[in-house]
């Protein structure tokens, strides 16, 4: 109990003279609550399910264009013969193409394409949530009335979906293809989730939404590069 009171000490989270009692829902104002974050768990599970279905769809498309397909193999065999290649050259070419479809590469492709799809949707959703807000154009508005800033529905869902996504990445990190930057990736996911939770609890919602938009925009470029490598 003492630890809980110390953790939620007003001076640790809020500027003077504001106290938690001042951030109670009233007069049409709604404020961020820790209890709001419980929904991130089922949403994270939903995102994991979407990732699984998306991955199966990518695998199906990959198989249809794969050289394992008899029709495709027959077509390319006829084309290669017109190039006057030897049997050894043909086998070497087929082997190199099969190696491109090995499970590791396909799995990396699914993971990178899923993250890219999310970041693109997140950027689009972030712009929709912020384009009509004054703090999107004037950063001084970010702190107007802070911390007594009412929570908007668009901000709520923007935060919930972002936090759920990073929660789902943490759930999947052990199952994903292990990358060279595995440790850095793990720290990144934990740090992002922790910072989002802190900004939510301390009602840094406005600045948090701007940071998320910039963060996801840069991640789009990173995932495009990652997808090109596959």
Automatic annotation (TrEMBL):
InterPro entries (UniProt xref): Lag1/Lac1-like (IPR016439), TLC-dom (IPR006634)
TLC domain: residues covered: 107-230
GO biological processes: ceramide biosynthetic process
Keyword Transcription regulation: no
Primary location recorded for the protein, binned into one broad class: membrane
Domain of life the protein comes from: Eukaryota
Molecular functions (GO terms): sphingosine N-acyltransferase activity
Gene3D superfamilies: Homeodomain-like (1.10.10.60)
Reactions it catalyzes: sphinganine + octadecanoyl-CoA = N-(octadecanoyl)-sphinganine + CoA + H(+)
Membrane topology: Multi-pass membrane protein
Pathways per UniProt: Lipid metabolism; sphingolipid metabolism; Sphingolipid metabolism
The keyword Transmembrane helix belongs to this UniProt entry's keyword annotation: yes
CC per GO annotation: membrane
Subcellular location(s) of the protein: Membrane
PANTHER family (UniProt xref): CERAMIDE SYNTHASE 3 ISOFORM X1, LONGEVITY ASSURANCE FACTOR 1 LAG1
Name of the molecule in the record: Ceramide synthase 3b
